[in-house]
C-alpha cells in the first residue's frame, strides 16, 4: 500500500474508480472507504484526495458505467438502428449482469437508511442514460426520421425503449426467480430494437 505522501500517478484516479466499482458490485454500498483504498493499493487519504465522500465515489462509478452506454449512441458508423443496437447490447450487458443485480438489491434494501445513495445512483445512472437517449430521439424527431406525438415524445420514447430492454426479465433476475444465461443475447437485443423502430420510424 502506498503512503499518504506518495506522489499521485496519472492513472491513480482511474485505478480508484475501477477498484471501487469492483468493491461496490461485490460488497454493496456498505463497504468502507478503507476497504476500497486497500483494493486499489493506496492509502485512504489518497482516496479522499480524489473523492470527498463515499457518495461522490459511488456516483462516479455509476456515471462511468452510464457513459459507456451513452457513448455507444455517439459513436460514428451506421444508421440509427446500428447505434441503438450498440446501445442495447451495452445496456443489457450492464443491467442484467449478476453483479449489477446484486448491487440493485442492496440499493433497494438500504434506500430508506441511505437516501443519498439511491439519489446518487439514479442521477448518475438511470437518469443520465435517459437524458442521453432523449437527446438522440429529440434530434431524430426534429429531423423527421422518428415519429413525434408532441411535447415530451422524445423522453417517452426513451423511457419506453429502456423498459423494453429490461422489463419483466430483469425483475425475475432481481427476485432470484431466474439466473441470466451466460450466452450472448444479441438476438434478443436486435428483436427489441427492431420492434421499437417499427413503432416510431416514420
From TrEMBL:
One GO MF term attached to the UniProt entry:
transcription cis-regulatory region binding
List residues annotated as DNA-binding.
32-51
- For whether the record's keyword set contains RNA-binding, the answer is no
Any Pfam family? TetR_C_7
Q: What InterPro entries has UniProt attached to this entry?
A: Homeodomain-like_sf, HTH-type_TetR-like_transc_reg, HTH_TetR, Tet_transcr_reg_TetR-rel_C_sf, TetR_C_Proteobacteria
Where's the HTH tetR-type domain? 10-69
Would I find Glycoprotein among this entry's keywords? no
Q: Which domain of life is it from?
A: Bacteria
UniProt keyword terms in alphabetical order:
DNA-binding, Transcription, Transcription regulation
Query: What is the protein's given name?
Result: HTH tetR-type domain-containing protein
